[in-house]
Amino acid sequence: MLAALAVVFALFGPWRASNAGELFAVVHDADGGERRLPLSVDQTCEVQTSLGRNVVVVQDGAARMTEADCPHKSCTQQQPISQPGQQIICLPHQLWVEIVSQGDAPNQLNEDAVRWNEGGSSTNVDLVAR
User: Fold this and answer.
1) CA separation for the pair 85, 61 (Å, rounded)
2) Residue-level pLDDT, tens digit, the chain, 130 residues
3) In whole angstroms, what is the distance from residue 26 CA to residue 4 CA?
4) Half-sphere exposure (Cβ direction) of 84: Cα atoms closer than 13 Å
5) DSSP string of 27-89, one letter each residue
6) Domain extent listing, the chain
7) In the Cβ-directed half-sphere of 88, how many Cα atoms lie within 13 Å?
8) Is 26 in contact with 106 (CB distance < 8 Å)?
9) Which is the CATH superfamily of the domain at 23-117?
């Protein structure tokens, strides 16, 4: 029993992400652009698209959205992300940031799931949040 627990912990333990190689914040925008920012380098990335402006900051091994000119700015209130699979999403701008490991391909965004409704609400937000 103890050996089985040790194997499970070795496979899925907290150090697994650190063994996966360098981590990147991948910024996807509504115009089809993609920027790959290493989390090991502090930097600021301004993204201007046909839908608006966002600023992503990588600092101390994490990425966060610091500015957005969207109506509610909820993307700027999301927690910094630093682990593979974590995301920050700006629904009105159809912009999202995800953390991936060096060898991983970025995910594809289901644009219908994050389409912004001009009435002030979004559709299928729960689907994106999971």
Assistant:
1) 15
2) 544 434 344 444 444 444 458 999 999 999 999 999 999 999 999 999 999 999 999 999 999 999 999 999 999 999 999 999 999 999 999 999 999 998 766 555 545 544 555 555 444 443 344 3
3) 36
4) 18
5) EE-TTS-EEEEETTS-EEEEEEETTEEEEEEEETTEEEEEEE-SSS-GGGGSPPB-STT-EEE
6) 23-117
7) 28
8) yes
9) N-utilization substance G protein NusG, insert domain (2.60.320.10)
One-letter identity of residue 121: S
Buried b (16+ CB within 10 A) or exposed e, 60-86: eebbbbeebebeeebbbeeebbbeeeb
Q: Which residues pair with 90 in a beta bridge?
A: 95
The SS3 call for residue 2 is helix
